[in-house]
Specification:
Molybdenum Cofactor Biosythetic Enzyme, Chain A; Molybdopterin biosynthesis moeA protein, domain 3; 30% strand; binds adenosine monophosphate; binds magnesium ion
Length: 427
């Protein structure tokens, strides 16, 4: 198989995965989920014309000639209903959010009036009909679709759901994700320290990346580079919607991941991407209708997806960002799949070997011209500190031989939950 370009590999992944089915969730648990149904307003809001200010409900026609003295006929607080009709020469004291009484058509701010006595005020400025009145239905009209399926549930959206009294709603299910590390050299986190071993960090870095998307993954542990053991673990992993395996996907004689997943019925879509770090990346699908060979279980009802991630800690994390996260987000119904990008200027020159899209770990600072990006240090795919220190991934086009200090670059932000529709990656 050929080396795929990053954008091509992303396309293959995103065309393969599908939206998961919907499930019901309580409002209190819905933050970050994606609506699987349209939501309609169940009433007009505000329910009637209300005051936008503390002041006086007036008839604008009375104020054509100012100053003018008006009689205050009642006090209307938020939650009260007006008891009287405002006649010419009259007004009502009104609080923010209180209904504008019949007869009145505008609200005069307290600041623009003078109190003459307990029930007389003088108005010194004129105002137009509708001034400082929030018209009935300004927020929403009964029956209007206020939120459409596909909307990500943010705090603002939760406010709208509460407004229309939705306590439970349909959202897209979150994928079940399993994580497996492979390699004879790996030492589990609770094993005693053995100087000849390599601590398994991928399990936990990937766990955190999955958690950042709102999914709680299952950690399958470490499989040794042994075809039979690997097969046992991979079978377990293929019971999930998405299986992330790190290590063992390359061309070494003990890299058994690809042949083993293929033996288990997984159709490989690609296994090499022209990127740095991270090129031995494999992606495959176990189709739902296919029975897992030699397995004693009912056929799967949905496809399972396997990502064979490179073992190098930085590579597996970068591949997660570029391929796995967009796939998981699509399955959960998000339309914004890719990390938000910003333009930055390089703080120093960067040398590059052309041929592969390179993701340089950078720190971002800010000056009066905008973001400034500087490398986090040694960019070896084994140096996880380069990732731990990074605010973002600077994307170098595959044809680039390097950039001078001050050059404008595109950086994917690694923090936060802001995603966008386009990758903005130029290859
Ligand atoms: P591999 O892809 O299996 O050839 O592994 C490439 C490199 O990544 C080797 O140096 C491994 O020791 C290292 N590596 C593989 N898996 C992990 C892991 N789970 N945690 C930390 N390093 C790993
Ligand atoms: Mg290995």
């Amino acid at each position: 198989m050929e080396y795929l370009r990053v954008s091509e590999a992303q396309r293959v992944v995103l065309e393969s995965v599908a939206l998961l089915n919907a499930e019901s969730v309580m409002l209190e648990q819905s933050l970050g989920r994606v609506l699987a149904e349209d939501i309609r307003a169940n009433r007009d809001l505000p329910p009637y014309d209300v005051s936008a200010m503390d002041g006086y409900a007036v008839r604008s026609a009375d104020l054509v000639q100012v100053p003018v003295t008006l009689e205050v006929i009642e006090d209307i607080r938020a939650g009260d209903m007006p008891g009287k009709i405002v006649q010419p020469g009259q007004c009502a004291r009104i609080m923010t959010g209180a209904p504008v009484p019949q007869g009145a058509d505008a609200v005069m701010r307290v600041e623009d009036t003078q109190e003459i006595s307990a029930n007389l005020i003088q108005v010194i400025t004129t105002i137009k009909d509708g001034h400082d009145v929030r018209p009935q239905g300004e927020n929403m009209r009964n029956g209007d679709v206020v939120l459409t399926a596909g909307t990500e549930i943010t705090p603002g959206v939760i406010g709208i759901l509460a407004t229309v009294k939705i306590t439970q709603m349909q959202v897209y299910r979150r994928p079940r994700v399993a994580i497996l590390s492979t390699g004879n050299e790996l030492e589990a986190i609770n094993d005693p320290v053995d100087m000849n071993k390599i601590p398994d960090s991928n399990t936990y870095a990937l766990m955190a990346q999955v958690q950042a998307l709102g999914i709680t993954p299952t950690l399958l542990g470490i499989a040794r580079d042994d075809p039979a053991e690997l097969e046992r673990y991979l079978k377990l992993g293929l019971e999930y919607d998405v299986l992330l395996v790190s290590g063992g996907t390359s061309v070494g004689v003990h890299d058994y991941v690809r042949p083993t997943i293929e033996k288990l019925g997984v159709a490989m879509k690609f296994w090499r991407v022209a990127m740095k770090p991270g090129h031995p990346l494999a992606f495959g699908v176990l189709h739902g209708t296919e029975k897992v060979p030699e397995m004693d279980v009912a056929p799967r009802c949905a496809d399972a997806f396997v990502f064979g991630l490179p073992g190098n800690p930085v590579s597996s994390m970068v591949c997660f960002e570029e391929f796995v996260a967009p796939a998981l987000r699509r399955m959960m119904g998000h339309s914004r799949l890719f990390r938000r990008t910003v333009s930055a200027r390089l703080a120093h020159s960067l040398k590059m070997r052309p041929g592969r899209t390179e993701f340089v770990r950078v720190q971002l600072t800010h000056d009066d011209t905008g973001y400034v990006a500087s490398s986090t240090g040694t960019q070896s795919s084994g140096v996880l500190l380069s990732m731990a220190r990074a605010d973002g991934l600077l994307v170098m086009p595959s044809d680039s031989t390097g950039l001078a200090a001050g050059a404008e670059v595109t950086v994917q932000l690694l923090d936060g939950t802001a995603y966008q529709n386009e990758t903005n990656i130029r290859e």
